[in-house]
Amino acid sequence: MKKIVLGYVLLVAISVFGQQPYAYEQEGPRFCLAVFLIDEQATYSHYIRIFQNDFESIVYFKEGETLCELTRCNYQKVKQNYRAGRLKEFKRIYRKDSLTFAQEIEEAYDSYIPTDQYSFRMAEVNELFQKPIVKNIFYENRVTAFLKVKPVLAPLMTYDFVEPWYIEPISKKNLISPPCQEAQNISCLCAALQFGASTQKETAQQIASYLINRFTYGYGDTSQYNPVGLLTGDQNLAVCAGYSQMYELLLKKANIAAKYVDGAVRIELNDIFYSGHTHAWNELEIDGKRLCSDVTWANDLSSDWLLNTEENFFLSHFREPTGDSLWDKSYTRTMYEFMHQPMVRDPDKNAIENLQYVKNGMPMQFMEDEFTVRFSKSLPVSQVRFYELSYPFVQFETQKAEVTKLHLSDGKGGKYEKGAKAVSFTLKDQFTRVSLDVQGIGTLDYCVFNGSPADFYRFVIDHIDAKSPYSVAMAFMACAKLNDATRFQQLKPYLTNPKMSFKTFQKQAKTYATADFQFALFNATRHHGTFDGFSFEYSNDKTEPRIYMSISEDEKSYSFTGFDTDVWDLQKK
To answer: What is the pLDDT of residue 571?
Structure first.
């Protein structure tokens, strides 16, 4: 519960797991009507303090992780009796390693009058308040109160200022560590976030929950690469880089091995053809097992974006090398493999396991008039959706000329039939964009071309648009796949070097592994300098060959320059 109490009390706190990680306390002395010691044991001391409009039940523990408990309630005085009212504050001071901190216990706030379910020995307080009081002395009943005999409890002190509840009454020591008396202290925050967690998994969850509940997506004034600044600031805004930087910092301080990673994610329909969405998330090791968490995308602790396996994350997240050779040693996946696997949006926790039952999971399908998704075991399909589609499939913000989009599909779809182990579609358009919500997998995306791969390659050549580097790249990749001199002549106007022969083109194409190309380009780069233009990757070859397109002087059109592994060799040709 986020709250600020003005006057003598200043409380700054953030919600987490229904609790605050720690409550920043800065209270001054308060004028008190009476202080009572209602119980003194070897393990604790229990005090009641009565103020003008509220009372405090304070228990000081002499052993264990809990040092102190405060229950602060409103009350009414009716004739000779107190009547406890609504709970105002309920806090405890805990010890974690060398730090002690206050924490507000929010689940108790549903209680009109606190009970022992939450508050230690609160039944004693409620029992005491049933007894009549005269001049700050509790008596057994109304008769003894009238006669002023047989007092049950007399005050230790009346009508004076008292120190805040977190000052131990005998030693006068502040029970809260100095760092935890600050509004935002990283050491105390880390200690508080770890408190109560008995395993690394629980610690990682508590930290994730704190970030999810405290921050909302957006840019503030603090750098997203300054996790301490984000955690100690008051704007509570972060994007993926900020979330992941903070999560890494807090995990490492909790002695959990963690890495900030970034790369590409597939989140939109056209990511079948190109994945250009940059994103950041985390990898961590829990009990010796490598797991992945995307705190930015997670809404709560039930999210499949938290503590998921590398295999499941690879369906939607491809990460680049971190620069840490030991950490990267076990990661051998490539962007080519990422783009040529089933496309699953919002994958289920068991998606990778259930995908083995999908017989045709590749996101780009080439069919004649009919397309059927088949399952080797029954996987319920809850919903089928169709989408509009236009070509070129991809456009970049750096393109200065506006590309005319060719409308391919209206998104209305066609007839389909759902069976226990199959969903069949009648293809009415040349392209069909469809998704299936499959239980145990997630949203399975397809683009279905009504024709053969060769027909698809001829299509992209016929619809080349010089204003789009993507369109030019797709056309020349298609030409390399077809190995057709006539089609190469059709593309002659789009060559940077008009003297390039079909033989030279095909030699380059063969040398630089264009046979790997199927339907997807990736890792676009905008080059400036000696070579000015765009390039894309398309292969699984370790040399990472690219297709290069030069940009015109007015930066409005592109032409094919060649295939190579870097621009330096490209310039020599």
So the answer is: 62
Task: Report the alpha-carbon distance of residue 332 to residue 238 in Å, rounded.
Answer: 30
Pairing of strands 11-12, 546-551: unpaired
CA gap 182, 189 in Å, rounded:
10
Residue type, 132: P
pLDDT at 415 over 90: no
**Residue recorded with tokens 């226990």:** 420
Would you state the pLDDT for residue 79? Answer: 84
What kind of architecture, by CATH, is found in domain 197-333? Answer: Roll (3.10)
Q: Which two tokens stand for residue 338?
A: 């990422």
Query: pTM value?
Result: 0.85
User: What is the predicted pLDDT for the residue at 439?
Assistant: 94
Task: Name residues whose C-beta falls within 8 Å of residue 332's C-beta, 6 or more positions apart in sequence.
Answer: none
Considering the chain, tell me which residue range(s) the CATH 3.10.620.30 domain(s) occupy.
197-333
Cβ within 8 Å of residue 365, ≥6 positions away: 371, 446, 447, 448, 449
Structure tokens at 297: 């995308």
Quick one: fold of 351-451? Answer: Immunoglobulin-like (2.60.40)
Task: Report the candidate in 500, 493, 545 with the shortest Cα–Cα distance to residue 522.
Answer: 545
Ranges of CATH 2.60.40 domains, the chain? 351-451
Whether the pLDDT of residue 19 is over 70: the answer is: no
Q: Indicate the pLDDT class of residue 527, thresholds 50, 70 and 90.
A: very high
Task: State the Cα–Cα distance between residues 423 and 418, nearest whole angstrom.
Answer: 4
* Rounded Cα distance, 441 and 316, in Å: 12
- Helix, strand, coil % (nearest 5) of the chain? 25, 35, 40
d(CA 305, CA 285): 15
Q: Dihedral of CA 357/363/364/368: which sign?
A: positive
**What mean pLDDT do residues 32-45 have?**
95
CA 452 from chain centre, in angstroms, equals 40
Angle, alpha carbons 106-112-113 (nearest 5°): 100
Mean of pLDDT over the chain: 90
Q: Among 233, 270, 235, 230, which residue's Cα sits nearest to residue 250?
A: 230
Question: Tens of pLDDT along 103-131?
Answer: 988 766 655 555 656 677 888 888 899 99
pLDDT digits (tens, 9 = 90+) for 317-332: 999 999 998 898 888 8
